[in-house]
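notes to self, project folder thing:

trying the whole complex as one job this time. last attempt i did each chain seperately and stitching them together was a nightmare. four parts in total, labels are on each line so i dont mix them up again. if this works i'll redo the older ones the same way
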Amino acid sequence: MNQQNLKLCSEIIDDKYVKIASNSLNAKEKLFKLLLSQRQLPEEGFDDLTIEYLLNIFAIMDTNNFVNKVGVGERESRIFSALVQKRNYYMGHGIGRSGDLIASQPKAAGSSLIAKLTKHLAKDALKLSNYQINELLIVPVATGMALSLCLLTLKSLKPQAKYVLWPRIDQKTCLKCIQTANLIPIVIETMIQDDVVTTNLDILIQKINEIGPDNIVCVLSTTSCFAPRIPDNIGEIAKICKQFQIYHVVNNAYGIQCNKIANSINQGLAQGTVNLIVSSSDKNFMVPVGGALIYGNDKKLIKQISELYPGRASAAPILDLFITFLSMGRSGYLQLQKDRVENYIYFKEKLQIITQKISEQILNTPKNSISIGISLKNLKIDQNNQEEKNQITKLGAILYSKKVMGSRVITNKKNKIVCGIEFKNYGSHCDNYFTPYITVACAIGLTKQEIDTFAQEFEKAYTQNT
Amino acid sequence: MNQQNLKLCSEIIDDKYVKIASNSLNAKEKLFKLLLSQRQLPEEGFDDLTIEYLLNIFAIMDTNNFVNKVGVGERESRIFSALVQKRNYYMGHGIGRSGDLIASQPKAAGSSLIAKLTKHLAKDALKLSNYQINELLIVPVATGMALSLCLLTLKSLKPQAKYVLWPRIDQKTCLKCIQTANLIPIVIETMIQDDVVTTNLDILIQKINEIGPDNIVCVLSTTSCFAPRIPDNIGEIAKICKQFQIYHVVNNAYGIQCNKIANSINQGLAQGTVNLIVSSSDKNFMVPVGGALIYGNDKKLIKQISELYPGRASAAPILDLFITFLSMGRSGYLQLQKDRVENYIYFKEKLQIITQKISEQILNTPKNSISIGISLKNLKIDQNNQEEKNQITKLGAILYSKKVMGSRVITNKKNKIVCGIEFKNYGSHCDNYFTPYITVACAIGLTKQEIDTFAQEFEKAYTQNT
Amino acid sequence: MNQQNLKLCSEIIDDKYVKIASNSLNAKEKLFKLLLSQRQLPEEGFDDLTIEYLLNIFAIMDTNNFVNKVGVGERESRIFSALVQKRNYYMGHGIGRSGDLIASQPKAAGSSLIAKLTKHLAKDALKLSNYQINELLIVPVATGMALSLCLLTLKSLKPQAKYVLWPRIDQKTCLKCIQTANLIPIVIETMIQDDVVTTNLDILIQKINEIGPDNIVCVLSTTSCFAPRIPDNIGEIAKICKQFQIYHVVNNAYGIQCNKIANSINQGLAQGTVNLIVSSSDKNFMVPVGGALIYGNDKKLIKQISELYPGRASAAPILDLFITFLSMGRSGYLQLQKDRVENYIYFKEKLQIITQKISEQILNTPKNSISIGISLKNLKIDQNNQEEKNQITKLGAILYSKKVMGSRVITNKKNKIVCGIEFKNYGSHCDNYFTPYITVACAIGLTKQEIDTFAQEFEKAYTQNT
Amino acid sequence: MNQQNLKLCSEIIDDKYVKIASNSLNAKEKLFKLLLSQRQLPEEGFDDLTIEYLLNIFAIMDTNNFVNKVGVGERESRIFSALVQKRNYYMGHGIGRSGDLIASQPKAAGSSLIAKLTKHLAKDALKLSNYQINELLIVPVATGMALSLCLLTLKSLKPQAKYVLWPRIDQKTCLKCIQTANLIPIVIETMIQDDVVTTNLDILIQKINEIGPDNIVCVLSTTSCFAPRIPDNIGEIAKICKQFQIYHVVNNAYGIQCNKIANSINQGLAQGTVNLIVSSSDKNFMVPVGGALIYGNDKKLIKQISELYPGRASAAPILDLFITFLSMGRSGYLQLQKDRVENYIYFKEKLQIITQKISEQILNTPKNSISIGISLKNLKIDQNNQEEKNQITKLGAILYSKKVMGSRVITNKKNKIVCGIEFKNYGSHCDNYFTPYITVACAIGLTKQEIDTFAQEFEKAYTQNT
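result (full assembly):
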């Protein structure tokens, strides 16, 4: 509300009240000024009213909300349903243009501003999480497809190459994104060190030599993973990639929440080759599934990905992220990360007590600070006795029935063909782990109450089961 | 978004786009300028985005939304539930102060502006409906309680008086509002002229003389009513009130939608005494139940009602009205009224055809242009035969089961005690109407499709029933 | 979604997933079963999805949402604006009927259920706050008007009486609600005991004798008040009322949050006469202004108030309350009360430290456990020196400019006519208090952070000012 | 609300009212039954309440909304912001699994049902628009990326091929989607026949022979385009593709709204090879940008695309579409299409009158029934006179300043490099069109009022400009 209109307000109610009220409106302008000039997470999160107010302003800046507009194009962002209008905050033009995923749209200044600002906010969030990167792109596709976009771009830069070297990690998407890009994965088998399943760098080097660096599009390494698998040694892989002049893409799906991974990636960036890092927006920032961050220090390369994307895209994942960053603020974001670290310690302590009681053990994987594995060595798995074998799968079923979601029971006995490749004991990240186990993750947003309930239900399920 | 911030936007996206976008923001400011300066219904209704934008601005003007506010009073409009916050558009201070229902609140400039503006918009709506009045108060209570507030105020101005003269109309609230004010109703029986049930002015005068004008708080007349009752003759009653110097309150519950009633009230205002007119906000403006308008030409008296109201009150009915007025605009409002008049004619034509088929008739009550009565004289009502008597009540039940709401079947045979007074044939507005009948109303918002379906269902129900 | 439809779902997605999902739907039904059968605050608050789901069900139960409905009445709850529809959760029929404010509506089963359930939930909340009452009515008007409704009802039961005895409390609404009911207030001056301003029971008795019990409608006592005024001694007043057979209404505006007041009222109920107690919904339950609770043990009397109310009323205050009760749950509600008690102690400790520094003192009013007074005796008030006199009012102005809302500075020098009665030193609840002071309240929902900021700003403002 | 709970309701309000209300709840179940069993657009659109009710049910079926759930996975759909929760209707798991974009999710039965149902509804919509196809996939990426997914899939089936034959159409995305898939576009120049710019089938055949069918991934033809370009002759191209055994992808971005295009595609499907057709969800169904439909008759191939997509994806575009389909219903959808056809005729008539006045002409392109071209031959374009040349671009600028969006002025003089290929007179779809012109589109949702305003503004801008 401009000065003139505020003056008109003073003719309706007491001028004194209008003055104080206009201070509050000015305070919002100051918040927006900070946001637009610093382009960082606000120190304290915005309240919902402020966020909605800002979204309204941006919506009014999009042409589809112009009063008396005449739309004679083929795409004018007419929205049929009032519910759809409302839930999209009256914006409909999506993001991007045919030339570039992050290009501003002439018809949608507001939506474009949201896209640009969200990028800056995401960069700031990464900075707060200690990532030493200077370029970032938010794509409105989830991690898997984002990785494919990276691979497609790298392929276009190295047309003759067709192989992607991939240290084994038994999550289907990690492998599939290679296939989507019409490239050929070369599995680098892991190795077991004590409890830990980890990257076998020797085999990696060996394979590079075998295939020849010129035929290799990139190494696709992974950081966030289920114990006892630990994050790939990004520092060392980066050095190897540098040495052989191979591109290096890091699948850091849910690693932003973890400082150790940031350090590992920074080391890679500093001492070797790390071209592109990809993270999920939902797994790291508590938004619905649908977006991913592609980041690194190679501005030109990231620009190329952005320019590779053909046409417009959904603004929904960016909008969710924008609202969430404003709502969290810097303090909220750091608090969530701090809570996660504390919860991780708390979770381990809780499990320590239980594992002692039931003569099992927490797998010793200190380099994985998100996921925890617990051995299930006392549960019977007689291959010839289907019933008994079920002691372990039954544990999973019981937990599921108690509304425990996301724990994974690994019996170490499944061979499986994924994307045309046969894996021994698929799910365990290696051919032969020494014990069945169950994994749990301490992800951002997990509550102490959930940890307590899990501990209780796990103990009960284990005990009743034996 | 102020100029400085728009300039910052130009550093993020193309300046050209920001310029066009800022035109759109300015266009909103111009709409608001018109609203704040003219204080009339906008020519065209605002879209939902514009309304929400304006509501957000007003919300920010309320102290409970100030950032870093310290609230050490006993009422700081802290709202527990996010759903409640959202549905109240983050406003919570209600309206009014202890001194006056329409006083501005120091803690709630935005809410106060809404209250004041809604009053102006309602006055404009009345003007568009041809009401020649110059003062209006919106109260966050429905018609009945609003009438009680009027009566309590008049009583305070004439403390020795205790009677209210009330031309009979068989709607309970009309009578009860008198009782609520601790006053004594004197029923003025109606008279039947051909099909019409109407005011008996002779008895009215006779009763005034009997009781003595000094003992009479006011006459409470009624305009909007079910056929065959027709609106009280406001012009003549106003003259009588003027002659005897008695206050006159008009219960015009749902009459704003009808031009004939406006003319009748204007005549009363011009030629006699009409002190206060009361109308429902929901029945005339398509909002949820909860508010009423008190209006007339006696500014001082209406101010007294406003000052009589003790303390704060819910802003909800005013907010609903504010949004609705902005959404309708002048053109939407006039269209709705035009549609209603057309529908009334259409409804009558439809019923004409059916009544001829079934040898019944539309009761001839041209002065009632909202409600229509249809005789049910061929349906049997033998008092000794309960089963047959049910031919009429069965008609009602069948219609109800067909989701026909709001039609009323009057069998003319019920005596009833209401507020301590016994009425003969309660429901028919008179002691003895010559035929049973069914009434339907052609209210604002009714659709042609509903009329068609009613006609169809009525004919079917009637025919199957005989 | 019924069994048949869930079965159809199983033909679309994996039956196993549908089974778990239907457990979740069943879990909601179980929550609703508890709500409908026990009619108490749920142990844990419902999440927003569950609340919206329940509101949707209730909305579908209202006739205005029936598919293919034909509405030929004058009030069919057609709602023009989609925003208004949404914010009212598609309900529009309000509450009550002409006969009774709490009567169920044939056209609005869902709305009626909400009204009835909210009453039960409010009763349960009062029980949790230790109120020993067995009947309650929620009225969609704020405290002042609710008190007027009580007085109008009592007046109707004792038509010859016209006085209300009212121990002085300098809040305008408390007095004005008497006037609204066309009754005459008799002010019972308070007395000062050390720091405390309290009820003068001797004068009360004396006035009863003077006026004669038969001429007195009731005593209107007050519990929640600003220090150094302490709550009226409800126990003793109740005994006096019993002795003289006078009705007794307690204005307990924001006292539900305070256990001491509950005890005092319970004592009154047990040992004497307490007919009606009135509390604000917004001040006690963190909803927007607009509703009040009328409660006590005289079921018949409360029914009479409900039946006195003429016609329908806004459902908005009830809906806000319903959502809030469901959202809080029993645990949330008790936690808020516990927090308030802790905050009160914390607030006092903070102020203790500051008052010592500045050589002022906290007024010793232990019986008031919501409001705290701080002397301002060292600030100059020379009546002939306007500038210096402003030391105190300036303090208020400074605090206000720092967004401190709700603190009240009392200079003890204002005479004022309220409702036709002249009060000496209006605002201080007595003719002559020994020191100017400032009051703050520790109300439900206040945060420690607000207390800290207040302490800081107060000290700064005081120090800079002297 | 189940029977047991309805019975409990009967203990709270009149059983009679509960009975009617439960009919309304049952009516919703019946609507849902039809939806779940027939999986077609409902005959009449659902109202917003019904849609929200259904969405809430589905949300409750997702595990993230389970009460007392314990989430120890890395992705548990915890949503930080209440605004984000609300706008996603409390759902967050997105769609798809690593194995398949349309696979049901164990953690999200409700979201999965929405995804599956939306697919069926989209198929039904296509059927209503006369498309004779039997398989469909909705992808949460816009048309360009959807085309890339198709090309990537086809490439994986024909790994040795690397060319895409592409009849020239000057929209960047159409070309770029080929590049994204790391394929090489071969431009098939158009030819001019009278006013029309159309496919040059001879050159197409010639190029196939030149390059060799085995080296060609597919022909990528286009239907919806700006006049004077007309849709590619799908029937003939399909025959050619069949003859040479080449895949054929049709870019039918906004052609679903047009019957002629449907017929052309059906012909292609019947008589030749049409493997995949891609359409925008926003341009055809009035939702925000973000989704596309891939459809055809080759179930296996479409399944392969679905399986190619790596990992999860945003559910937002699907949710928008689901809500919109339910809200439109069959009658609404057909009405929109009917309106568009009428508007097209109306638009042409309006322009006929104006073009005669200004001695210009409507380009005669009857096969393009969406876009209309108007010659601007009288406006001066002297290449050496920048100022005069601007007569045409000025026209565009004037229209833009009058809030006319989406009209395109083509001056026929721009050479441009797009995706590494140089095009003569880019924008005009051919090397040398005989006149400059302006195009407008008559897209779904355009209103007569917009047409009128355009006509007025165009005439004014043209006249003032000459």
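what i see at first glance: The mean pLDDT of chain C is 95.
need to look closer tmrw
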